[in-house]
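User: My instructor asked us to take a sequence, write out its structure as tokens, and then describe one feature of it. I'm not sure where to start. Here is the sequence I was given:
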Amino acid sequence: MSEATEAVVRDAWAAFRAGDTTRLLALVHPDLEWTYLDPAFADPEPQTCHGRSQLAQALRRDSLRILTWDIEELAVHGDQAMVVLHAPGLDRQRVRQAQDRNYLVLTVRQGQITAMRACRDQDEAAALVH
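Assistant: Let's start with the prediction itself. The structure tokens for your sequence are:
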């Protein structure tokens, strides 16, 4: 399961970096639960979106795609993956400072990402992967 989870995460990331929204969204379950941290606040409460269509809307309007993102760390445990992303210049576009990093926990089931949760730091993300 871990190898399959990692493959889906890496495929989704490659699609994102290539700007291939169609391929990315094909790797996302239609009922995705997506929790994000609003970049307009220093200590945001998590906001939750549902469905592939809301993610597609966010991707269309998201100015963060102009940054160069790299996977700095990927730790997989079963159907979950903790992903540390680094994007130089990211902190200039948000109030909350995190050394130009985003921390995500993804859940992959049957070849699709079913949940994506943004975390404040690596410790929070690592605690969610079990």
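For the description part of your assignment, you could build on this observation: The chain has four helices and six strands. Try explaining in your own words what that tells you about the chain.
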